[in-house]
Amino acid sequence: MGGVRQGSGGRTAAIRFRAAGGLLLVAHLLLVGWITLRPLDVPWMSAANLRPLAGIKADLALGGLQAARRIGEALLLLAPLGVLLPLAGGRLVVSPWGSLVRTVAAGALLSLGIELLQTGVPGQVVDVDSLLLNTLGVALAHLAVVPAARARLRRLQGREYVPALRREEASQGSTPTIPRVGIAP
């Protein structure tokens, strides 16, 4: 009986994590959309950068502090997705490599979508280096936080809950049983 309560409490916690992750994900994407897709009133614009690493080389030529600021901004823009996407997924028992690949692919596709949408926004310039840096930021954030957080959550939920979670994911639930009634003498 105690294992059932712990499992249902674990499911409630998982639902809360998924809801919080989804809400934070939507909030972050709205912020990213506002930052990257709002029209800018600028006196001049540079040409689009379609050569990989050319923008990073140009940033490094500006000097250490300016380069660190520009590269850091591109790394940090979508980095929270590396944590928020798995959090919104809500699974504790998952292949670490599969999770990393899915998260990085989603981050790369989102960054590509932003770059493509920027082609129609006044004052915004397409830059392939921002696509590379955004994707790298998602991967680094995922590697830094998600495996350790999942391991810690699995430890907190106890060893009894994890096998139950695996069994429930594979099937549609436990089979109901009928209590046995003794035969009259």
From TrEMBL:
The chain crosses the membrane at residues 20-37, 74-93, 100-119, 131-149. InterPro entries: Teicoplanin_resist-assoc, VanZ-like. Residues 26-144 form the VanZ-like domain. The keyword ATP-binding does not apply. Keywords: Membrane, Transmembrane, Transmembrane helix. It comes from the Bacteria. Residues 166-185 are annotated as: Disordered. This is VanZ family protein. It comes from Streptomyces anatolicus. The lineage of its organism: Bacteria, Bacillati, Actinomycetota, Actinomycetes, Kitasatosporales.
